[in-house]
Amino acid sequence: MHKKNGHADGKFVNRYYVTEVDAFEDSIYCHHTIIGENFVPEHVHDKDQFLYTEGGVVFLKTSEKSYFLPARHYIWIPAGVKHSIHPSSPNVVMRNLYFPKFESDTAFYKKTNIYPVDDLLMELIMFTNRWNGNIFPVEEPKFSLAKSFKLILPELSKHELPLALPYPNNQKLKDIVTYLESKIDENISFKSLSIKFDISERTLARLFQKELNMSFIQYYTILRMLTALKLLLDDKLSVNEVAIRVGYNSLPTFSNTFNKVIGVRPSEYVKQKELLYQS
Known about the structure:
By secondary structure, this protein is of the alpha+beta class. 37% of the residues lie in helices and 19% in strands.
């Protein structure tokens, strides 16, 4: 085992995610707890992080994107990626596993992504609840069990979800995105947007593609679905009310779009969202 002499910024002192996670470079570190705060400041780890949450909505922000982590999903955060965590409530439960690099690591582990959690992975997550703190390579079979959790993830995580929106750098596009967010209950057309901001449709299309690497309709659809997820989870609205709040007059159209983006119909998602707290 190799002890590291990492030092933390003063405001992070005594926070486990800075002072303890990377203390031993070859250990697997486990941490299950209620977040207990409204905001986890930007920080970075030398280890890869598996983060699963329950009991509320979590936004996770990196320098490039804002990720939306809903119930029944996990996010993989590679080592070296600076991020901050913004829970909807201090009572959100976080289940974290931090892994060192292994020679067997594939490209899967180098990407920040969100994936759905199936029943098998849920059982494995709950199994890890018995672990807390460092697990060292000499602690067998515990270490091999913890390591296998990481190794099996690519097999159980075939479908990444586009639950992230990139940040624009262009000021006009920042204004446009802010406008879309503020008018989320209106079905804003591409044409009306170009008129509103005095920019040609061709230029606007290029701007979205260049700045955000997606089309207007892709961005707008994901924005509306992420907002819908938040309303379903936080505001306890009915599916019909949520559809209207994100600008859909047709419930079937909303349900079909939600299913395409999230991978499950909103009615089914509502049934899944109530997860048991396990301390």
